[in-house]
Design brief:
CATH class of the largest domain in chain B: Alpha Beta
Number of helices of chain B: 9
Number of domains of chain B: 2
CATH architecture of the largest domain in chain B: 3-Layer(aba) Sandwich
Number of domains of chain A: 2
Helix content of chain A: 40-55%
Oligomer: heterodimer
Helix content of chain B: 55-70%
Shape of chain B: globular
Number of strands of chain B: 5
Shape of chain A: globular
Order of helices and strands of chain A: EHEHEEHHEHHHEHEHEH
Order of helices and strands of chain B: HHHHEHEHEHEHEH
Distance between the termini of chain A: 31 Å
Largest interface: A-B, 40 and 31 residues
Chain lengths: ~230, ~230
């Protein structure tokens, strides 16, 4: 039984941690995280990658549904397993329910080192704005961008050294007038993606089957279980 | 208008679009004022500026511009739209009911909503902006209060789909659905439209404005994607 993981570059550290924790030896193919700006392009990139994978029984998708970017994906020769997660925050927190509840509480902006590494992360946005438009205008722009967010939450996934980014994230939160919080993440859902069981927290597509929008919604709207 | 002025119009127009694409606020303000002084209709100038915002939006979508750049382009556009309203040539659409707009419950993303509202206002439409995280009942109250035939539901996250569906269902239960055209915008598709029970879906601010314009002036058109 051969298996390949297709993962978002943003969560590569966490995927590798999950691989170490579970002891599997699946190869990991990373997809460029900046494609998140455009779910259609993200979809095309993931499908292109799947199309290149041959002689594999199972493709594990370490992505959230990411703005419907996964809808329509399929593989002619392999089954595809997708975790129940509207975005990768759920994968970092360990469950979709937890991520949903956090989002309900207050406008929360989540960060990990992986997000800070990506070219178009929110801090890079801010620095670019200051450089291009000056401090005053940059503050105005960031207020439009983050005006409804009250809290910056750094997820400590244990896949990177939290202290390496805390100074940066705290300073950014202070500049934006947001509360700064740390929350311990969990590899539970990623580990389960790697070793199973693929129960109702996963969608399993048989070879040739496409991910339907309704299947995606159905799994997201199941009764809360945790 | 003389041939010379026609040439001047073209020059100003092209420059205005490009100044927005360059995010050059000073040039946009200067060119807009120049255009008005030359007697160019403010709507023509705003349309050229809007084309610039559209291009900036495309550059953002393909990763060449930052989100901050899109916000700046939108702010520059809204500045000159405000200047247009102060002129005698400000567009008017008196008599039309307001377009109801809001980001649905559990969603707080409003950049696309605000850009669309800016363009609608620049064209003289009245907009009843209900803000973000708007419960279904607030949309329904707004329809009752204003008698508006158009309601725009915006959302960028997956949970927004259920909030959109809830809003359409409540309109239905309250007996208001047949009199209201529901447009959904953001990260949406034909499948999302079918799921939510909305009439139209748009992913693009300009298309959303054109759709609202068409509905308000001509009544509901064929139910489909409007791009």
């Amino acid at each position: 039984m051969s298996t390949v993981v297709v993962a978002c570059q943003t969560i590569k550290r966490e995927v590798h941690l999950a691989i170490r924790e579970t002891g599997v030896d699946f190869p990991v193919i990373l997809i460029d995280s900046k494609l998140h700006n455009n779910p259609d392009l993200l979809h095309q990139a993931i499908q292109r990658q799947i199309d290149k994978i041959e002689n594999v029984d199972t493709i594990l998708i370490a992505f959230g549904f990411c703005g419907n970017g996964l809808v329509g994906i399929s593989s002619p020769g392999a089954r595809i397993v997708i975790p129940r997660a509207d975005d990768c925050i759920a994968l970092m927190l360990g469950s979709y329910e937890l991520s949903k509840n956090f989002k309900k509480e207050v406008g929360t902006y989540f960060l990990t080192k992986g997000w800070l590494d990506s070219e178009h992360n929110v801090l890079a946005e801010y620095e670019c704005c200051v450089k291009r438009y000056g401090n005053e205008k940059a503050q105005r722009v960031m207020k439009v961008m983050l005006g409804h967010y009250r809290r910056l939450m750094v997820i400590d996934t244990k896949a990177y050294r939290l202290e390496d980014i805390l100074h940066t994230t705290k300073s950014f939160a202070a500049k934006m007038g947001m509360a700064h919080q740390e929350h311990t993440g969990s590899m539970r859902l990623l580990n389960k993606l790697l070793h199973g069981p693929w129960d109702d927290e996963f969608i399993v597509l048989e070879p040739g089957q496409k991910l339907a929008f309704r299947d995606m919604l159905a799994i997201l709207t199941q009764a809360d279980r945790i | 208008m003389s041939a010379k002025n026609n040439v001047e119009v073209l020059c100003v127009n092209n420059l205005l679009t490009h100044a927005i694409i360059r995010l050059d606020e000073d040039s946009v303000h200067y060119l807009f004022k120049q255009g008005l002084e030359q007697g160019i209709d403010s709507l023509t100038l705003l349309e050229e500026a809007r084309a610039g915002v559209q291009k900036v939006s495309e550059l953002y979508n393909c990763g060449k511009y930052f989100l901050g750049d899109l916000i700046v382009a939108s702010e520059i556009f809204q500045d000159i739209a405000g200047m247009a309203l102060e002129t005698k040539m400000a567009p008017t659409t008196s008599g039309l009911p307001p377009i109801i707009f809001g980001t649905v419950e559990e969603d707080i993303h409003d950049i696309g909503k605000n850009i669309t509202i800016g363009i609608l206002k620049s064209k003289g439409f009245e907009v009843d902006d209900l803000g973000v995280d708007v419960p279904a009942s607030v949309f329904v109250d707004a329809v009752r209060r204003t008698g508006s035939p158009v309601i725009c539901l915006s959302g960028l996250i997956t949970t927004a789909y259920d909030s959109m569906k809830k809003t359409v269902s409540l309109l239905d239960r309250e007996g208001l659905r047949s009199g209201v055209t529901v447009v959904i915008g953001g990260l949406v598709s034909e499948e999302v439209r079918q799921y939510t029970g909305a009439d139209y879906w748009v992913k693009d601010c300009t298309a959303g404005c054109q759709l609202c314009d068409a509905i308000l002036h001509s009544g509901p058109v064929k139910r489909a994607v409007f791009l």
